[in-house]
Amino acid sequence: MSEHEDEQLVGEYPSLPKQKRSQQKRDALLESGRALFIEKGYEQTNAKEIASHAGVATGTFYRYFTDKRQLMMSLLEDQLEKLLPPEPNWTNVDPESFFATLLEQHYKRLNRLGLHRVLPELLLKDSQLAEVVAEARNKIHARILMSLKNAREQGIIWDDLDLDTVSWSIMVLSDKIPEKMTECGNQVDYCELAKVICRLVFPPDVLQQLKLNIK
Amino acid sequence: MSEHEDEQLVGEYPSLPKQKRSQQKRDALLESGRALFIEKGYEQTNAKEIASHAGVATGTFYRYFTDKRQLMMSLLEDQLEKLLPPEPNWTNVDPESFFATLLEQHYKRLNRLGLHRVLPELLLKDSQLAEVVAEARNKIHARILMSLKNAREQGIIWDDLDLDTVSWSIMVLSDKIPEKMTECGNQVDYCELAKVICRLVFPPDVLQQLKLNIK
Amino acid sequence: MSEHEDEQLVGEYPSLPKQKRSQQKRDALLESGRALFIEKGYEQTNAKEIASHAGVATGTFYRYFTDKRQLMMSLLEDQLEKLLPPEPNWTNVDPESFFATLLEQHYKRLNRLGLHRVLPELLLKDSQLAEVVAEARNKIHARILMSLKNAREQGIIWDDLDLDTVSWSIMVLSDKIPEKMTECGNQVDYCELAKVICRLVFPPDVLQQLKLNIK
Amino acid sequence: MSEHEDEQLVGEYPSLPKQKRSQQKRDALLESGRALFIEKGYEQTNAKEIASHAGVATGTFYRYFTDKRQLMMSLLEDQLEKLLPPEPNWTNVDPESFFATLLEQHYKRLNRLGLHRVLPELLLKDSQLAEVVAEARNKIHARILMSLKNAREQGIIWDDLDLDTVSWSIMVLSDKIPEKMTECGNQVDYCELAKVICRLVFPPDVLQQLKLNIK
DNA sequence: AATGAATGAGCATTCATTCAT
DNA sequence: TATGAATGAATGCTCATTCAT
């Protein structure tokens, strides 16, 4: 079992590549790593494969990364933040179409990154990574929660639901519904999902009002 | 990488154990497998460890299972069905406390089985398994959906939401919210979560009425 | 670079072999390790070769030893003590023939063990081992020195030489002369070497007297 | 494992460096090689490290040397001869102080070169090198032996010892005593060692006489 | 049936050497 | 000439699986 308590998240590169060509190779390795992790799973992928998929020799992998794990970390660091949702201004938008668009974008982004499919496997054995991911999730959750609090002050959302639970629900529905439905062979209807999420937030009459305000 | 396209789901046991002692060993192996998969992850656990944790020799493992994978399959087969929710009769229960109880039980069951933590890792590389799980999920989904359809005929639920989406939402919220909140260090309040789920289903006034009917 | 500060000299076996066959395999591995270390040098020998020379699979090597290093340590531990010279009683023996016999035995033993040829290489990089060997050498040196001190009290050895230096000289001559001469293609004449060593210890007239006393 | 049976001892330089800069680089590489071989052992040192220690690129190493081995050879060739002891004129010197000085110088030189610490490792696997070293040792031995023979003709040394054995003893004591004593944590007293060596050569009364002759 | 020693293919990693720049 | 990134064969070690006892 490998030990890595004292490493930073991404750590030093074995040697910092300075030339253009180098950066290209590093990128190719990252991209190949991502593709293979998603395709076959983290554990099922090895450094040799990543290298050969990237069109470089095995040894080259180790010039740029100390480890399969470090490559994974680099991938995550780059991209976890990109998942932060934009701050909505509820009075200016049709919440349903706002959410529908947001959901679709979000899921496309998730799919592009793809790493969410390998995360569960990793979180189980890399508690350091688990922390990083938990922190990122908490950040997203906090932003949603704040949004909801503002909305409540404006009196435009249900007043009998616990906002913390609502925001976690929104997160989970955004992340997992498309995943589960796809897994089970169904198509995701982002509009319907948006409606469901809106129902968690807005009483139907308020929602109606908001829609009217825009036009 | 082992090939197993043509195998059945669980396959023949290398020899069908008919005697008590045998059955005990098989059970011990299953239990040890489950414990270790949950504790360390599927990939990180090996047959030798499972055997020694179960107090038998390595070779004995292979008398009862062809494979770590087959043991996993057996674990899943046994237990996926147990997750089917009971058919509720909405006119007889307070939906909120019904859901709260259901959720808590469900999550406790999930935790007892524990395997949901290893599933994502497996689904990625074992499409046969993925199908089994998808089927089980679809079964649960179908039952929830039917419930909702009955309720709609009774006119007691929102009439503008897509029932398919709603039932997926209920499933996902039941499965994932507790997981995510625990991962991120929050306590789950099953009552609040039940209220949120109820809001997806029942208009507040109907819910009020249902509660009154009981008493 | 491997870390092994906290290990004992030989350490735990990966698993203690209890059966006869096992012990035979372990012995075969030790013997093959010794033969190959001597033949090709420590660094030039790898676990796979040792295993195949011993007629077992690579993995079997690792059942009995954690490491090439551990095998080496086992070899040394067994045998360093065997090099302790017997305590001589100068009044009972002809020193020259005593030394001649001793030298020949000693060198044959060294050659049988053979490990002295690989030691210098190891001492350079394994300070823990270096300590063990230094300790063993000091033990031998101490015994020789004590012998000499007794002899000096009996007034039978040169009184103007530093006994510490003399005993180191005896050790070095015993160990290294045969080695160097062989390396350079000369035959060792143990009788002549014994005479030289005796000259370091006994004045010629005393030696004469000692020889007479015996007969 | 590289093959080099058909190479000459040192071989052609990949390109004969004629310019100053080149010679400086070559020297820097030699010096770095020596330093690292001594510090970490021959096997533990690689070309990349030598190059980087010498402040040049990896590839540059291979412009000047075909091999780590060739660099080693160059180091040895340069310096083995330097170990030749001067021809003493016994009638002009105090043998004890002559030897004491000689020993100290010799050991300092050995330490400066340092390579004697890596030699044993190399001799084992490079029989060509072993020959070179054996030849150098034989040369030194021959010179000592000749010295002793002259002295014997002058009747100033023990007449009952085998001169061949004595000269090997002198060599071994000169080379190894300081090494062993240092290894075992003792200080070397060159004067005492000189006295011991003198005892191997000169009868005490002759030595006394030689000392008197000088003053 | 049960055991656990033995197997050897497979993976992560290193490093001597080459070669495009 | 000089560079250092790239190469890929070789090494140490693991582990799923077999099989003699």
UniProtKB/TrEMBL annotation, chains A, B, C, D:
Annotated transmembrane regions: none
Ranges of residues in domain HTH tetR-type: 23-83
DNA-binding region ranges: 46-65
Domain of life (superkingdom): Bacteria
Pfam families noted in UniProt: TetR_N (PF00440)
Chain segments carrying region Disordered: 1-25
Protein name: TetR/AcrR family transcriptional regulator
Annotated source species: Metabacillus bambusae
Source taxonomy: Bacteria, Bacillati, Bacillota, Bacilli, Bacillales
